[in-house]
Amino acid sequence: MTAELLRESFQIQGRNFDKAGEISSEIKVILKDLGIDAACLRRVVIVAFEAEMNVVMYADRGTIALILTDHDISLEVRDDGPGIPDIDLAMKEGYSTASDEMREMGFGFGMGLPNMKKNSDEFCLESEVGKGTSVFARIRLDSHD
Ligand SMILES: Nc1ncnc2c1ncn2[C@@H]1O[C@H](COP(=O)(O)OP(=O)(O)OP(=O)(O)O)[C@@H](O)[C@H]1O
Ligand SMILES: [Mg+2]
């Protein structure tokens, strides 16, 4: 039996670079206080940060749900936004539609989605053009770097 120990939702504001990264920092503090293992914590924070940044960069608004069970940590990220027309292309390392302004801020290497997948034990990306995108990632509590 898998017991759900914690579920918490966070709102992300699209295009608000001033607040970008705040939610993944908050998730880090919550999980650290719960004593989550460092390797697992690191992976969750990478996935949460990249997901949060993608909503900030490309979408209007979104939510991140953090779910902790006795086996794993899941992140469910949904946004209202333009969606992704070609998911295979978006998943390729180096592919990015980031603006020059975003690149100047140090984003837009096209590494967010590939890194999210790499740091997840289960990863799923779904999108509907004109509606939005959702990301589901699961990281096991006993995962290693
Ligand atoms: N939530 C989203 N809504 C719409 N498009 C998205 C979303 N997430 C990713 N994309 C598209 O997929 C591309 C690749 O995303 P990825 O996170 O891998 O790279 P990036 O955001 O461009 O750069 P980096 O993450 O390295 O700063 C983006 O450039 C964008 O075109
Ligand atoms: Mg990104």
Helix and strand arrangement:
Elements: E1 4-13, H1 22-33, H2 38-58, E2 61-69, E3 72-80, H3 87-90, H4 100-104, H5 112-118, E4 122-128, E5 132-140
Antiparallel strand pairs: 1-2, 2-3, 3-5, 4-5
Helix pairs in contact: 1-2, 2-5
The protein binds adenosine-5'-triphosphate and magnesium ion (MG).
Q: Outline of this structure?
A:
The chain has helices at residues 22-33, 38-58, 87-90, 100-104, 112-118, and strands at residues 4-13, 61-69, 72-80, 122-128, 132-140.
Explain what this protein looks like in three dimensions.
With 145 residues, the chain is α+β, with helices and mostly antiparallel strands. The protein has a single domain (4-140), classed as 2-Layer Sandwich (Heat Shock Protein 90). The chain starts with a strand and ends in a 5-residue tail after the last strand. The protein has a five-stranded antiparallel β-sheet with strand order 1-2-3-5-4, with helices on one face. A hairpin with a 2-residue loop joins β2 (61-69) and β3. The model has no long low-confidence stretch (mean pLDDT 97). It is globular. The chain is built from five helices and five strands.
